[in-house]
Design a protein that fits this description.
This protein is of the alpha/beta class and 290 residues long. The chain contains 8 helices and 13 strands.
Length: 290
């Protein structure tokens, strides 16, 4: 039995080596996975870089980038269909720019506006867009909120920083950031709107609710913080009033909520909400390379 196991291992290894030599796409696949593992296991909140997209990309945290890459580039959760070559896209919570880079690859002529509140992450976003030669993207170092003012922003150091809505010290430190109203940017038809703003989504959707009829595809990451009222019902009501059809995917949830409520960065539930207008044939579109 031991000898058979050794022989099987040798055969598998030889097949792997053969594919590495004969199949360039397999070699790239292995190299990409090796690089992703390096980023996943890097020290948290440490600046580093990667060329996984072909051009050097600056990062603020390897592990959060790993999960974002899996979602955005492998699962393609932001993929949408547009009959225009230059769709209008608004990215709220742009982070280091991974979502913008994906959307620009999907629609090279797209018109994109991006918002990133964390000052350090914003500088990294700027650097990455410059590295890729995108000078036609408007980005703002501002937070989305229900009104325009200056608020404290709790800095996490990766992708979970958020507008401070209480007196608890949530992360390392706080900075003051200017806020803007999303409704100011919804004066024309929006093909894709992404809201990943770490707990501010309900307040922002309430503020721009009367303008959502101009949005064709809307992604909302819903964050439920332990000890605070849940507002999922309010979000779904707003989307329903705007005549969206909704699909909801769980990103983080307790497998046994009656027994135990594990927390992740203070959250007991995190959902991806996809709101869209018409049931187009996404399956056939997804089979086409970008």
């Amino acid at each position: 039995m031991a000898q058979l196991k050794i022989i099987r291992t040798i055969i598998i290894h030889c097949k792997h080596l053969g594919k590495l030599v004969l199949r360039p796409e397999y070699r790239k696949y292995c190299q990409r996975n090796k690089e992703l593992e390096r980023l996943k296991n890097a020290h948290r909140y440490t600046p580093l870089s990667t060329s996984i997209l072909g051009i050097p990309l600056s990062l603020v945290d390897g592990k959060s980038f790993y999960y974002s890459y899996r979602e955005i580039y492998e699962n393609e959760i932001y993929r949408f269909i547009s009959n225009k070559p230059n769709p209008f896209i608004i990215d709220c919570g742009a982070n280091v720019g991974l979502s913008i880079l994906y959307l620009k690859r999907l629609y090279p002529k797209s018109n994109i506006i991006g918002f990133e509140a964390d000052p350090v992450v914003y500088k990294t976003l700027q650097a990455n867009l410059n590295s890729f030669g995108y000078d036609d993207i408007a980005i703002y170092n501002k937070a989305l909120w229900k009104d325009e003012r200056t608020l404290e922003f709790s800095v996490e150091g990766a992708d979970a920083g958020r507008v401070a809505q209480n007196n608890k010290e949530e992360f390392n430190y706080r900075v003051k950031v200017p806020t803007v109203c999303l409704s100011n940017y919804l004066s024309e038809s929006v093909d894709f709107l992404k809201l990943d703003i770490e707990g501010a989504e309900t307040a922002v959707l309430k503020e721009c609710a009367d303008c959502l009829h101009k949005v064709n595809n809307l992604f909302v990451e819903y964050h439920s913080f332990w000890g605070e009222p849940q507002t999922l019902n309010e979000i779904l009501s707003i989307l329903n009033d705007a005549n969206f059809r909704v699909s909801i995917h769980s990103q983080f949830a307790s497998p046994k909520p009656f027994v135990k409520q594990p927390l992740q960065l203070g959250m007991d539930l995190q959902l991806n909400i996809f709101a869209y207008r018409t049931p187009e044939n996404y399956e056939s579109a997804a089979s086409q390379p970008i």
